[in-house]
Amino acid sequence: MVDRVNFLIGYGERLATDMAAPVGGAPKRHPYTFAEARQRLAPRIIETVRELEELPGEVCPEDQSVALVTLHPSYIAKSYYPGDLLKTYDLETIGSRAREVSPTKWTKAKPPESAVTSELFVAGARQNFRRLANSMQRFADTSPGAGDLIKIEDVRVPTPEDKLKPFRSDAKEPLLEVVLHAQPVQSDAFILEGFEAYMETLGVDLDLDRRRFFAEGLCFLPVRIPREIASDVVRYSFLRVAREMPRLRQFRPLVRATTGFTPFACHLPKEDAIDREIRVAVFDGGVRSDGKLNAWVNRKKTKDIGKSVPEFENHGTAV
Description:
Elements: H1 34-54, E1 64-71, H2 83-88, E2 92-101, E3 115-125, H3 126-135, E4 152-156, H4 160-163, E5 175-181, H5 189-201, E6 213-215, E7 218-224, H6 230-233, E8 239-244, H7 310-318
């Protein structure tokens, strides 16, 4: 076996040179050329703007409205967000949701019949949407934001069917959960004020001070309306969805198997509550009236409540 000889070279670092890392992957293939994208989308954008222009002013607070922009399934990564195009025309995304589409073209050899993609809720002044539509005739591949046009599969106005979910009851004045694109910031106050003013034109009274809450860019409101004006309510541009308020399901304690279960004694403490400032509300079947939990539990009754049910009280006491 030949011994391996290691040579020590002085100033060996001078023999080293920078080496560029290899670039992985091929350039992204696009389903549409710029010319194809403009030819497809220009009529849709013009039609969308025409529908937005026809909306009455009371459903567009401060003359702002919302359109839907559907991305091609090949561009759902965050890095493909069409920010340059939206910024060019002073439009902004206020939300998104999933939508299943069947694109006109794919880059795949065996494309699926349909795929799930992202649909963006895009808001802005109607004059900004109008500028976008007017620019379509002279839009070139060198225009600002032109690179984002090939990422878009569809542009449209939300329909009442998009917003209003089917009723589950036959109530003449159902209580709806109305969801608005609004955050608890001063810059979005016009959305709530505009909705309140629009509801007043429909004869609906709102209490925005006490009955609302916000979550993830959305505002949730309970609104009781006559059934026949539901389609008018959802015309409001910043209204995302309206659905009948869910009801609490009827109380039915689970009956679990007790085979092999041995009862045991429960020894309650004799001391008072450590901190009486801490309170917990338990919505259940009530508690027994034998007084054993009176040191820690206060029974609350509401009007028009029926007679006690021992089975339900047993469940509430156990909780």
